[in-house]
Amino acid sequence: MKTSSRMVLSLISGVALAGLLSGCGLLEIFGRGLSELCDVDTYVVNKTEDTNDGVCTADDCSLREAVITANACGGEHAIELPAGIYPLTVAGTREDEAATGDLDLTADITLVGVNSIVDGNGLDTVFHVLEPAAVEITSVIVQGANGAGILTESELRLQHVTIRDNDGPGLLISDRPASADLDNVTIERNRGEYGGGIVLSFTGQMTIRSAVISENYASAQGGGIWMQAGSLAQISGLTLEENRADDAGGGMFSYGRVFMIGSQVRGNQGGGVHFAVIDVAGGGTTRESVEIAETTFSNNAGLAIRNDGADIDLIRVRIRENDAGIRNDGEMSIQTSQISANRESGVTNLGQLTIEDTTIDANRSSVGGGIYSRGETLVERTTISNNTADNFGAGVFVGGGSLRVVNSTVSGNRAGLGGGGIAYASEEGGTPPERIELEDSTVADNSPGGLLGEVSLLRTIVAGNTERDCSQRMDSRGYNLDQDGSCGLTEPGDLSGVDPLLRALADNGGETLTHALVPESPAVNAAGTICAATDQRGVVRPDGPACDIGAFEYTIVLAVGTPDPFSSAVPIAQPKGPTTCRSGPSVVYPPLAYFDIGQELVLQSRNGNGTWLEIQLEGERPCWSNKDLLELDPGFNVMDLPLGFIPPTPTWTIVPPTEPSDAGPQGCWHQGPNDNQPICYVPCPPQPNPGGACTP
Q: Are the beta carbons of 265 and 293 closer than 8 angstroms?
């Protein structure tokens, strides 16, 4: 007969544990009684005392007795653990039958509590899962172990579990087939040598779906998590915070494979995460792969991420306000990320590093505030801005190896001594850098100086840097532009001593901020027809007869009502009546277009006092209209528009009078500096005197 799932039989009450475990076999001793007991689905614990004087019965069932009974019966069983505190008091260690010390689980057991507390009382590990058991623990608090709070050598699933205040790691996952699945788990205030919160042994596997691992301590490595070579962790929804390690890896130290997404690593002492390799006999290492995505590293004491030889991909990560950002001594790729406000360099590379579509902003260091490189570094579609250095290379300092910067912007960086944008020099005892190359890039508004040391330039703008754009003659490969003539540009297509007319660093589309070109910029269509396939934002090059110099490709907006990439967020206006649009913000500029009432216009910028607004024409260069002639959206403030580039005031040339017509309103003939033929203007410009009457 099979009992109901919640019934506990009392047929064998008082039978000693020794009888249960005798070599004669349980069924042989207890016959039909044990058979019926083992048919029970759920054992209900009904006392908090830790006794071992018989099997689990309806009248007398401790947690230990429930575990022993479930183990003895084998198969699948559940144990219900009511709310309360369950201290383990039966002393003893080093046996795996749950008779003394920890609770050894050898069957497929589901333990369900109600935030029930199981206290190891300083005796031993609290729970020990042995092969081939599959164990699930829900709504239980595990504390007070002398050793690991939970040790698993088989399959373990934890839901709504807290593991805390153990004198050993909170969770120890042994070698395969050991695995642990954590969902809504908290592991806090545990202590160990290697691994305070979790230890993941050789070939062990762990899946974290949601967890908080905090305030754990390791006297060596891995305050929150420590992983051996060959192990695997798949992590999402993890908060790894305020853990501490005396040696390295305050949050995590790993020789294994890690895949992490959607997590927070913050406030750890001894660094955020540290990945390393082990040398193997006969040569080589245990290099593992690591992928971290959509995760934030913040306020860690030490490096946010340290890589000592692993192969790491970082995708959409945020690394901010740490003692230091990233140090790479292996292979690393950083994609679509933000590295900002770190106190000792944003990125340090001594290995192989690729950075793409990333912002490196407001970091500081003695040298190399944004990037310090002595390895092989490739930077693509990235903005390095507003970093500081006490000495040299606020944006980038290259002390060895090679640096290649493509389709990127280096802007607004400040150094104490020189090379505000990019500086390179061989450090004492070091190997000089092999080569620094900039292609299709913009280096602007850095101080003091844009480039320090010889740099190879191709289709690159160096402009607006204080003191000097370049410290010396650069290795030009053509189609470059400098503003002050200090870069020694003499190759075909070079423009030396020319203002590129850059807009301020802003969000012009794409993943990163860029310096937009105004339509009149000499860099537009000046880089030849061979260039990178896209600009820094991903806009296809060329947009016109030739490519533009620098990281930004100027484009004409083709669809009416579609804002220019660098226009205001609220760009639409309509003429109140027939309206003239001129080449500059005054009636002295020649008209380029006429608008009819109701036509939608895309606003791009303003003049200094906002009385004239620049409008993007469909398929044409922008033009200017008086604000009072335009109907603006309610609540729109024209001063929110960026300040536009004001072209030089035209110099008018008087032309001979032309015989006026008798019909229509009269205007004046004038010829501007860019006009081959006289144009009839209505009304007549105030200066100079009109050259003759005309009929428009």
A: no
